[in-house]
Amino acid sequence: MTAERTDVTDNGPAVRGASYEPHEKLRLPDAPADLDAALRRGEAVAWREPLTIRTYEPGEPSRYPMFLDHRVYQGSSGKVYPLAFTESVSDEATLRDWDAIHLENEYIRLVVLPELGGRIHVGYDKTTGYDFFYRNNVIKPALVGLAGPWISGGVEFNWPQHHRPATYLPVEASIEYDDDGTVTVWCHDHDPFARMSAQHGVRLRADSSVVELAVRLHNRTDERQSFLWWANVAAAVHDDYQSFFPEDVRYVADHARRGLTAFPQADRPYYGVDYPALAQTAPDADRIDWYKNIPVPTSYMIVDSGQDFFGGYDHAAGAGFVHWAERRLSPGKKQWTWGTGPLGQAWDAQLTDGDGPYVELMAGVYTDNQPDFSWLLPGETKVFTQYWYPIPAIGTAHQATPDAAVHVDRDGPLAATFAVTRPHRGALARIVRGGEVLASQNVDIDPGVPFRLEVDVRPDGDGAIAAELLTSAGQLLVRWSPTVVGDGEPWVADEPPAPAAIDSVEELYLTGLHLSQYRHPTRSPLAYWNAGLERDPGDVRINLALADRDYRAGDHVTALGRVETALARLTRRNANPMDAEAFYLQGLVLRRLGRIAEAEQAFGKAGWDGTWAAAAGFALAQSLACRGQNRAALRVLDTLDGVVGHDVRRVALRAILLRRSGVDTDAEAVLLRALEADPLDATIRALAGRPLTDAAGLLLDVALELRNAGALDEALQVLEWTSTAAAAWSGNVRPIAHYVAAAVHEARGDSARAAEERERAQAADLTRCFPFGLDALDALEAALTADPDDAVAHSLIGMLLYAHGRRPEAGAHWERAIALGRVDAVLFRNAALAAYNIRHDDARAWDLYERAVTVAPDDARLRYEQDQLAIRLGRTTSERLRRLRPVEPLVLSRDDLTIEYVKLLIDAGEAGRALEILLTRSFHPWEGGEGQAIAAWDAVLAANGLPQTDPPATLGEARLPYVPPVARHASGETDYFATSLPELLLFARETAED
């Protein structure tokens, strides 16, 4: 790849309200010689070749676990543990070679970046020379992502929440060719939270301008999991860019449907902007389908459309794109923009070196709002497909299919302009009314070349009028007819009342379920569920919801009691209930308690219910396999295959059982078929002896799957690989791998090897080792049973329990590790959080932070957190300044601590020094955190007796011209519908009721 210096504004209209310096524009390499012949034949090709891209590297992730329970992020929980949190981005760019996969056919050119979540970075229409996806010519992250860095441009695939946890993490990728000239780039993502699996395949076909995305979401865990999926598509914008949605869209909604306005003409204030008032002074200023009319950061999601398409159109370039997907699965259609105002321009500068503003035209699957989560059952796989294609100069699409799009002019004579995604010879374009053909023409039509048909008729005349395009064989490609919609206004969400104000137990249960399913960051379901049990202690639904919560936290004894309470009522009169979830959950809990025979009975009973048959059957077969009951386990699998949905875990278990039964040929055939269908599945590859990823987190999960199937030798081999894999940004699991291996050896009766593995764990590097999940909990508990004085195990299990909500126990483990003599800044800091938040022991918390700072005096995060604690403990500003002044260079290394320091300088009468800092230092804002640097700037100006002015660009912020939706009320309470309030809320007092 070569980079050529060019002015990007040569490629399109000038960007509104800003001018940008020339910069390096990506020039994409030609296809290799061995693929060029296939490309000339019209086939699609793909190859792997690095791209050298100007890159601003993010800083090293924090070594401290972030327990951000009440962080509001994208309208739901901003919890980031067990991911490490990144808080800085370099101000200096370097040239970096990025792993890139290029796809190309006659019409389209794409680039996929596996090191950045498998995103599409470039989408280029060769027929028009237009980047239909926003091409960011730099990798310039801002602190927008869930775990920190995020980049704009291209297409980001967000799951299981937004923005995708793995957005700045690598994925595995492979290239797949079909005999018909189709090529697919498969990317495999390992969810670092719930350990689910997602694959997306970016596909180009021969003779087609369609970008096809095939997606497989697989829940490889034993628990039901919530998720959402949004494709985040960026489009470069300016005054002449218009987003289009189906003509039956009359209203759009804000996040969580907290607000509503008409569309495309906003009929009420929205995001603080009085659009009807603006329209009084400027015609069409209320049209929010035009980027130029939206001055502030704004989201809107369509409501109640029955159509399958939407997209964006660049009127200056005469080009755009269409997205199409079946509405039955993919109802979500959304636009987001930073807005045209100064704040939007500030964010543009944070995210690019000169490519200007963009909008996001986002497609949601199994979701139509944010946050809006659906469910995946244990072992369930969901598959779906999305389509995008560029359109030439037809205007905005009024109807579209994967085959064609049409724009219909109705201001004068009716004219239909068509665009297709494949070449068609002798296609028939026509305009009809009822059974009468008003105009028609046969035409040879190709992608990138529009065709217009006109007739002197008005669409509101007698009879139903339509414009359509058909193949020469009469197959309909696209058809438009006028849309008739109703007058009703959609519903708007409201905050649920307090538990005491809710009349029914059912409503209490459902409210708690909503808060849990949608991961509400500031309202707990417990208040509602506990209130329900006060009225009806035997309520089945609430007892099972709480049992599931207790089970996931590792509190199995409590969980079992709740399940048994639910089962007592559920089976009092009906031994065979309609829903067998209680039996399945009972089996999970009993298995964790080591009561295997009872667990197998529960799984067997759960299998009577079709909803739970697949999950229960797999769990039963897995348990039987662990006990060496191979034929029995295979019989269970035989009852599932071909009857319930595909679960790759069953394939792996069958191969293991066949090998044990001596039929290796059958086992290899099973694995080969699985690899043909899913070449990136890590467990199948491990069993087949294929090369594995070096991603330690995924390796650990493979080892656990093998262990849980009774394949202990294979599990120990993968655990050994895991323990030597390099620690990554996604976390360091090497110590946990040693503890899991110790538990396996102990179960086999090899106490010497178990002790050796525990010693390796104790000696391992613990940097960013944030254990999570029940298997890690079991391994750490087993380690402490074997050696109650293992300070490393105490330290690690404390982090796990704190993240799982068992905070008093976590604090006790941390204090025990300290008592055993462990000296570690991370341990002291964690114990300080527990002392302040849980035990309300202020003196102990302060002392522990003092010890942490002594161990790591050059750690800026520790200094920031200690200063935040000082504020909560009422320490004077002079005392805080006295502690920070000697380490000013360290203070100035963090944006948040610098802001605090500037305020302290003002209080101390040193406003001149405060102004100097703000004028000479660059800041990196984060989404939703705007305003802090502005407030400091205003305070500094006032303290220096200077008039209020706009801040320098180095502050990374600008003033909002309108008042945005409130995130936090004057009382200090977070608004129920807050979408973004990303403060690092590490210090929050908790009570027993929490």
Automatic annotation (TrEMBL):
<dbReference type="InterPro" id="IPR011990">
    <property type="entry name" value="TPR-like_helical_dom_sf"/>
</dbReference>
<feature type="region of interest" description="Disordered">
    <location>
        <begin position="1"/>
        <end position="23"/>
    </location>
</feature>
<feature type="domain" description="DUF5107">
    <location>
        <begin position="79"/>
        <end position="391"/>
    </location>
</feature>
<dbReference type="InterPro" id="IPR033396">
    <property type="entry name" value="DUF5107"/>
</dbReference>
<protein>
    <submittedName>
        <fullName>DUF5107 domain-containing protein</fullName>
    </submittedName>
</protein>
<dbReference type="InterPro" id="IPR014718">
    <property type="entry name" value="GH-type_carb-bd"/>
</dbReference>
<dbReference type="Pfam" id="PF17128">
    <property type="entry name" value="DUF5107"/>
</dbReference>
